What does this fold into?
Amino acid sequence: MEMSTIYKAKTFDLSGLQGISDKTLEMHFKLYEGYVKETNRLNEQIAGFLRDSKIDQEEMPAYSEIKRRLGFEFNGMVLHEYYFDNMTRKGGGDPDPRSSLAAKTETCFGSYARWKEDFAGVGKMRGVGWAICFEDASNGRISNHWINLHETGNVVGFRPILVMDVWEHAFLLDYKPLERPKYIEAFFANVDWAKVDARLKAGK
Ligand SMILES: [Fe+2]
It folds into this structure.
Protein backbone atom coordinates (compact mmCIF):
# COMPACT_ATOMS: atom_id res chain seq x y z
CA MET A 1 0.00 0.00 0.00
CA GLU A 2 1.21 3.47 -0.85
CA MET A 3 2.01 5.46 2.29
CA SER A 4 0.00 8.38 0.94
CA THR A 5 -3.22 6.40 1.31
CA ILE A 6 -2.77 5.33 4.94
CA TYR A 7 -5.00 8.07 6.38
CA LYS A 8 -8.19 8.96 4.58
CA ALA A 9 -10.18 12.10 5.30
CA LYS A 10 -13.48 11.28 6.96
CA THR A 11 -16.71 13.00 6.07
CA PHE A 12 -19.08 14.57 8.57
CA ASP A 13 -22.75 15.35 8.03
CA LEU A 14 -22.97 18.65 9.90
CA SER A 15 -24.92 21.11 7.75
CA GLY A 16 -27.55 23.16 9.54
CA LEU A 17 -25.79 23.55 12.88
CA GLN A 18 -26.85 26.35 15.20
CA GLY A 19 -24.58 29.40 15.08
CA ILE A 20 -21.86 27.69 13.03
CA SER A 21 -22.55 28.26 9.35
CA ASP A 22 -22.26 25.71 6.56
CA LYS A 23 -19.74 28.07 4.95
CA THR A 24 -17.53 27.83 8.03
CA LEU A 25 -17.84 24.05 8.09
CA GLU A 26 -17.03 23.66 4.39
CA MET A 27 -13.90 25.76 4.83
CA HIS A 28 -13.03 23.85 8.01
CA PHE A 29 -13.40 20.44 6.32
CA LYS A 30 -10.94 21.62 3.66
CA LEU A 31 -8.45 22.64 6.35
CA TYR A 32 -8.90 19.25 8.02
CA GLU A 33 -8.28 17.46 4.72
CA GLY A 34 -5.03 19.41 4.50
CA TYR A 35 -3.89 17.88 7.80
CA VAL A 36 -4.71 14.38 6.56
CA LYS A 37 -2.77 15.00 3.35
CA GLU A 38 0.18 16.47 5.21
CA THR A 39 0.26 13.60 7.73
CA ASN A 40 0.42 11.12 4.85
CA ARG A 41 3.08 13.18 3.08
CA LEU A 42 5.33 13.36 6.16
CA ASN A 43 4.99 9.61 6.73
CA GLU A 44 5.94 9.04 3.12
CA GLN A 45 8.98 11.29 3.43
CA ILE A 46 10.12 9.44 6.55
CA ALA A 47 9.69 6.13 4.72
CA GLY A 48 11.86 7.63 1.98
CA PHE A 49 14.65 8.33 4.46
CA LEU A 50 14.38 4.78 5.82
CA ARG A 51 14.33 3.05 2.43
CA ASP A 52 18.06 2.25 2.69
CA SER A 53 17.59 1.45 6.42
CA LYS A 54 19.81 4.27 7.59
CA ILE A 55 19.51 7.96 8.22
CA ASP A 56 22.64 9.56 6.83
CA GLN A 57 24.23 12.47 8.65
CA GLU A 58 23.42 14.83 5.76
CA GLU A 59 19.79 13.73 5.88
CA MET A 60 19.52 14.58 9.56
CA PRO A 61 18.39 18.27 9.30
CA ALA A 62 15.54 17.50 6.88
CA TYR A 63 14.61 14.34 8.75
CA SER A 64 14.53 16.24 12.07
CA GLU A 65 12.32 18.96 10.68
CA ILE A 66 9.82 16.41 9.39
CA LYS A 67 9.81 14.55 12.71
CA ARG A 68 9.23 17.81 14.59
CA ARG A 69 6.19 18.54 12.41
CA LEU A 70 4.62 15.13 12.99
CA GLY A 71 2.97 16.11 16.27
CA PHE A 72 1.46 19.20 14.67
CA GLU A 73 0.03 17.42 11.62
CA PHE A 74 -1.07 14.22 13.38
CA ASN A 75 -2.85 16.07 16.18
CA GLY A 76 -4.28 18.57 13.67
CA MET A 77 -5.86 15.64 11.84
CA VAL A 78 -7.08 13.65 14.86
CA LEU A 79 -8.36 16.59 16.93
CA HIS A 80 -10.49 17.84 14.02
CA GLU A 81 -12.04 14.37 13.75
CA TYR A 82 -12.94 14.43 17.45
CA TYR A 83 -14.28 17.97 17.11
CA PHE A 84 -16.53 17.35 14.10
CA ASP A 85 -17.62 14.05 15.58
CA ASN A 86 -18.79 15.57 18.87
CA MET A 87 -21.25 17.93 17.14
CA THR A 88 -24.67 17.19 15.67
CA ARG A 89 -27.54 19.30 14.39
CA LYS A 90 -29.73 17.52 16.94
CA GLY A 91 -27.42 18.43 19.79
CA GLY A 92 -27.19 21.01 22.48
CA GLY A 93 -28.97 21.65 25.71
CA ASP A 94 -27.52 20.19 28.88
CA PRO A 95 -26.49 16.54 29.14
CA ASP A 96 -29.00 14.09 30.57
CA PRO A 97 -28.66 14.28 34.38
CA ARG A 98 -28.47 10.45 34.42
CA SER A 99 -25.58 10.41 31.93
CA SER A 100 -22.03 9.36 32.78
CA LEU A 101 -20.77 12.83 31.92
CA ALA A 102 -23.22 14.54 34.29
CA ALA A 103 -22.13 12.17 37.07
CA LYS A 104 -18.45 12.82 36.41
CA THR A 105 -18.85 16.60 36.34
CA GLU A 106 -20.44 16.33 39.80
CA THR A 107 -17.73 14.04 41.16
CA CYS A 108 -14.81 16.02 39.73
CA PHE A 109 -16.15 19.61 39.74
CA GLY A 110 -19.09 19.68 42.12
CA SER A 111 -21.61 20.44 39.37
CA TYR A 112 -22.16 20.43 35.63
CA ALA A 113 -22.34 24.25 35.66
CA ARG A 114 -18.91 24.51 37.28
CA TRP A 115 -17.41 22.01 34.83
CA LYS A 116 -18.90 23.96 31.91
CA GLU A 117 -17.54 27.24 33.27
CA ASP A 118 -14.08 25.68 33.41
CA PHE A 119 -14.31 24.16 29.91
CA ALA A 120 -15.60 27.44 28.41
CA GLY A 121 -12.95 29.32 30.42
CA VAL A 122 -10.22 27.26 28.77
CA GLY A 123 -11.81 28.02 25.40
CA LYS A 124 -11.64 31.76 26.09
CA MET A 125 -7.92 31.72 26.80
CA ARG A 126 -5.86 33.97 24.57
CA GLY A 127 -4.05 32.15 21.84
CA VAL A 128 -4.65 29.61 19.14
CA GLY A 129 -5.53 26.08 20.12
CA TRP A 130 -8.11 23.75 21.61
CA ALA A 131 -10.16 23.21 24.74
CA ILE A 132 -10.33 19.52 25.57
CA CYS A 133 -12.05 17.60 28.33
CA PHE A 134 -10.00 14.48 28.95
CA GLU A 135 -10.71 11.39 30.98
CA ASP A 136 -7.88 9.84 32.94
CA ALA A 137 -8.61 6.19 32.14
CA SER A 138 -6.62 5.07 35.19
CA ASN A 139 -9.12 6.55 37.67
CA GLY A 140 -12.04 7.78 35.53
CA ARG A 141 -11.56 11.43 36.51
CA ILE A 142 -12.16 14.19 33.95
CA SER A 143 -10.22 17.44 33.56
CA ASN A 144 -10.21 20.34 31.08
CA HIS A 145 -7.02 21.32 29.26
CA TRP A 146 -5.69 24.03 26.96
CA ILE A 147 -3.82 22.73 23.93
CA ASN A 148 -1.52 25.19 22.24
CA LEU A 149 -1.66 24.85 18.42
CA HIS A 150 -2.50 21.14 18.08
CA GLU A 151 0.21 19.37 19.98
CA THR A 152 1.31 21.17 23.13
CA GLY A 153 -0.56 20.18 26.26
CA ASN A 154 -2.12 16.86 25.28
CA VAL A 155 -1.74 14.43 28.17
CA VAL A 156 -0.33 11.06 27.17
CA GLY A 157 -2.81 8.25 27.62
CA PHE A 158 -5.72 10.53 28.53
CA ARG A 159 -8.85 10.04 26.43
CA PRO A 160 -10.45 13.06 24.70
CA ILE A 161 -14.10 13.26 25.76
CA LEU A 162 -15.13 16.67 24.41
CA VAL A 163 -13.01 18.60 21.93
CA MET A 164 -13.56 22.25 20.92
CA ASP A 165 -11.53 24.02 18.24
CA VAL A 166 -10.75 27.60 19.25
CA TRP A 167 -8.48 28.51 16.37
CA GLU A 168 -9.96 31.64 14.82
CA HIS A 169 -10.73 29.81 11.58
CA ALA A 170 -13.38 27.89 13.56
CA PHE A 171 -15.53 31.01 13.91
CA LEU A 172 -14.19 34.05 11.99
CA LEU A 173 -16.73 33.76 9.16
CA ASP A 174 -19.56 33.84 11.74
CA TYR A 175 -18.22 36.06 14.54
CA LYS A 176 -15.72 38.83 15.12
CA PRO A 177 -12.37 37.93 16.72
CA LEU A 178 -13.54 39.30 20.08
CA GLU A 179 -16.78 37.33 19.93
CA ARG A 180 -15.20 34.01 20.81
CA PRO A 181 -17.61 33.55 23.76
CA LYS A 182 -20.51 33.64 21.27
CA TYR A 183 -18.85 30.90 19.23
CA ILE A 184 -18.34 28.85 22.41
CA GLU A 185 -22.06 29.13 23.18
CA ALA A 186 -22.81 28.10 19.57
CA PHE A 187 -20.51 25.11 20.01
CA PHE A 188 -22.41 24.09 23.15
CA ALA A 189 -25.71 24.42 21.24
CA ASN A 190 -24.50 21.64 18.93
CA VAL A 191 -22.71 19.23 21.28
CA ASP A 192 -23.62 15.60 20.72
CA TRP A 193 -23.94 14.56 24.38
CA ALA A 194 -24.70 10.96 23.44
CA LYS A 195 -21.37 10.82 21.64
CA VAL A 196 -19.60 12.36 24.63
CA ASP A 197 -21.15 9.75 26.90
CA ALA A 198 -20.24 6.95 24.49
CA ARG A 199 -16.62 8.08 24.66
CA LEU A 200 -16.73 7.87 28.44
CA LYS A 201 -18.36 4.45 28.36
CA ALA A 202 -15.81 3.22 25.86
CA GLY A 203 -13.18 4.02 28.46
CA LYS A 204 -14.62 1.68 31.06
FE1 LIG B 1 -9.67 23.86 13.04
Q: What stands out?
A: The mean pLDDT is 95. The chain is about 45% helix and 10% strand. The first strand starts at residue 129 and ends at 136.
